[in-house]
From TrEMBL:
<keyword id="KW-0032">Aminotransferase</keyword>
<dbReference type="InterPro" id="IPR015422">
    <property type="entry name" value="PyrdxlP-dep_Trfase_small"/>
</dbReference>
<dbReference type="InterPro" id="IPR004839">
    <property type="entry name" value="Aminotransferase_I/II_large"/>
</dbReference>
<dbReference type="InterPro" id="IPR015421">
    <property type="entry name" value="PyrdxlP-dep_Trfase_major"/>
</dbReference>
<comment type="similarity">
    <text>Belongs to the class-II pyridoxal-phosphate-dependent aminotransferase family. BioF subfamily.</text>
</comment>
<keyword id="KW-0808">Transferase</keyword>
<feature type="domain" description="Aminotransferase class I/classII large">
    <location>
        <begin position="32"/>
        <end position="392"/>
    </location>
</feature>
<dbReference type="GO" id="GO:0030170">
    <property type="term" value="F:pyridoxal phosphate binding"/>
</dbReference>
<dbReference type="InterPro" id="IPR001917">
    <property type="entry name" value="Aminotrans_II_pyridoxalP_BS"/>
</dbReference>
<protein>
    <submittedName>
        <fullName>Aminotransferase class i and ii</fullName>
    </submittedName>
</protein>
<dbReference type="InterPro" id="IPR050087">
    <property type="entry name" value="AON_synthase_class-II"/>
</dbReference>
<dbReference type="Pfam" id="PF00155">
    <property type="entry name" value="Aminotran_1_2"/>
</dbReference>
<keyword id="KW-0663">Pyridoxal phosphate</keyword>
<dbReference type="InterPro" id="IPR015424">
    <property type="entry name" value="PyrdxlP-dep_Trfase"/>
</dbReference>
<dbReference type="GO" id="GO:0009102">
    <property type="term" value="P:biotin biosynthetic process"/>
</dbReference>
<dbReference type="GO" id="GO:0008483">
    <property type="term" value="F:transaminase activity"/>
</dbReference>
Amino acid sequence: MPPNLDKTLASVLSSRSSQGRLRRLTIPSPNSVDFSSNSYLSLSSNPAVKSAYLAFILPYLQSTESEAGFGLGSGGSRLLDGNSAFTEDLEGRIAKFHGADAGLLFNSGFEANTGLFACVPQKGDFIVYDELIHASVHDGMKLSRAKRIPFAHNTIYDGPETLGKDRPHSLDSLLRSLTEGTDSEDVTTGKKNIFIAVEGVYSMDGDAAPLKEIVECVEKRLPQGNGYIIVDEAHSTGIFGNQGRGLVCQLGLEDRIWGRVHTFGKAMGCSGAIVLCSSTARSYLINYARSFIYTTAMAFPSLASIRTTYDFLTQGHAEPLLQHLQSLIYHIHNLLSGIIQRHNPSPELFRINPETPQSPILPLLTGRARDLAQYCQERGFTVRPIVAPTVPAGEDRGGGRMGDGGCKM
């Protein structure tokens, strides 16, 4: 086979490497202090969770009945052989826990977002999204037939600080233009829908969405009820709200948010995701979400791990871990603030958000992300450089997450 394609690919990789943007797989050192993991509560390695998991699956291991039996694989997609009473019961349990009407499991948060945004918004609809929304939402929107418009990150209303800057408008100004423009009749009468895509907690900045203000703005500008808010709760699941129910539940907005995506690969310590929505929307996703239809369903071991961690939260066992996590967040922020006060580094070299963190994600903003990460790694701290295109060019940072059971960022 002629190596022409490999030469082309190697040239592209070389160009990225020369810009300091080349991604590489690494294996974390077991002896380092982990400031990179998304497992904020360390549930994946928690002895009590692991013991509960083993105790939960033991009866299934010993069962000879086909429906209750243990299988390493599901046998097919949910629409073929991959569905089970256990799966549907789990969806119902999770939906009830989060105060939702129904839920549909996906193999990952990425598949949940791509499936949801690709099929629900229709031609002529609009998707108004926060400029820092996750890549999976971008990929889902690209597959959609709806028009896409970004708004400035966490900016609901235009103010003096946003005027004249080369960045998207606020959410309010975009909704106002959609409802007051010359072609706005279909929007104002409710014939066309507007979907508003935000995250509960943003994975690169660690700040929470001003969700109450977003809801109030949408309801004010779209009184016909054709504004549908979708919240990606990947980084707020297990952390925010009573027993980790998420930001929507913490704010009591369950009945005013159209859809939520909760993922299990962060604080929940396992894998997979669920879209919480109405029972009608669930049926629609079963029929039209391609990332659900054309993939093998999660196997019982994965489903059992999700069930185990939700039981752990429901029974209140995670509360001490959450309290300890909060103490770690404040502790590391105070340490970093103290370093800056003592040494006064240039903002180009090292800076943080001086405000109290809203989540376990603490970005260290720097123009030398790779150097800073390497310096930390050589001293036994797992800190990863986060560079473009994951974050906007010029906004590199040393990605940090605080976690329970030790300093895990």
